[in-house]
Amino acid sequence: MKKKLLFVESNTTGTGMLALKKAVSWGLTPIFLCNKPERYLGLEETGSEVIVCDTNSIEALKQTIEANVAIEEICGFATTSEFYLEAVATLATDYGLPGNPPEAMRTARNKSLTRQALDQAGVGQPRFAIVKGQSDLEQALASVPVPCVVKPADDSGSNDVLLCNTLEEVEQHTLKILAVTTNMRGQATAQTVLIEEYVDAPEYSVEMFTWEGKTTCIGITEKSLTGFPYFVESRHIFPAKLAPEVEAEIRATVSKALAAVGVKNGATHTELKLTEEGAKIIEINARLAGGMIPELIRLATGVDMLEQQIRCSVDGPKDLVVAYQGHAGIKFIMAPEEGVLREISGVETAQNSAGVQQVIVTGKPGQAVQPPQNAYHRLGSIIVKGDTYEETTTALDTALEKIGVVLEAAVVKN
Fold first, then answer.
1. pTM of the model
2. How do residues 83-130 score in pLDDT, each as one tens digit?
3. What dihedral angle (degrees, nearest 10) is formed by the CA atoms of 26, 29, 30, 33?
4. Domains located in the chain, CATH noted
5. Beta strands in 226-276 (DSSP E)
6. Which residues form the ATP-grasp domain (predicted)?
7. For the chain, how big is the Rg over CA atoms in Å?
8. What is the DSSP letter of 315?
């Protein structure tokens, strides 16, 4: 019987380790392939078999798998890490198991390829230019003038995404990105920069599942970002409060975008801006949403996104019937100024506030903190559930007001 589910790395939040535990609870045997087990807090408690190998090499992965696992016992391949989507797709394809086409994952991971695919399909998106060297800059800025967004084509977590207001800023940030040759997982970067039109409009994300080419929309998330020049997500509300005709347009645009990229199986998290000209795709992530959005969906609908994503690696999602039961929201705890963290105060008081489901603190005493430039600079979060959109947003604001970021020489309220 096929019972071994092979995971290639994971994200470093609780979601990744939870995925392993879920596999165990279904009677499967998760095998976790990774290059640094120490990266994963709680890995030893998941009940999975851990095999250390070079996960950045397909050939090394195949050699490790064939030396340690009976191929006929493998039921699927999975990952909760953005950086290993293409590797998992390649393995699933090579071993004849459910998954996405590797070229689709390559296109989704490299935002410059995504832009080209959407352009060919006529999907709404910002104007853009692709830069692979300093010599491309002049032509790029002729088609996308400042202010513009400059970002790496293949990173994650809003890392190195910057709004640039001058030609000098564009050049400096472009050269900074081009100089990065490996990412945080030791993989070679695309060394490609996207210069994009800055779209000043409300942002949303669309959470979908695709199985054998058929797509189901779970819902739309309202997203809020920090102030300029960085674009770090500060709040999510699910489901978003939208007119039915607007929601229909957003869903249709995203479905067309996923078809253009070639997504066939699994979860997708597509970010867009809602403009007067219609929805414009910002990026397609061929994975579950981050930022605890899956937990908001579970609270508001009962749908377990992580469970469904794992099932997409084996035999497909089950019972994707979405019935909204109120709203859920999250606000992130952030340092409003630079300093050394002494503590996060008011956690218990916030936890006891109306509607609060969970308060998570990730900041550690003695840690150097700053106003966030990417998702990794956030210090924690508060999750609430409410019967209405208004009740949810009020509960979030009330709870966050009780939290203080205590620096070595100051106390700063969120």
1. 0.92
2. 999 999 999 999 999 999 999 999 999 999 999 999 999 999 999 999
3. -170
4. 4-97 (3.40.50.20), 127-197 (3.30.1490.20), 199-325 (3.30.470.20), 327-414 (3.30.470.20)
5. 233-238, 266-275
6. 115-314
7. 21
8. T
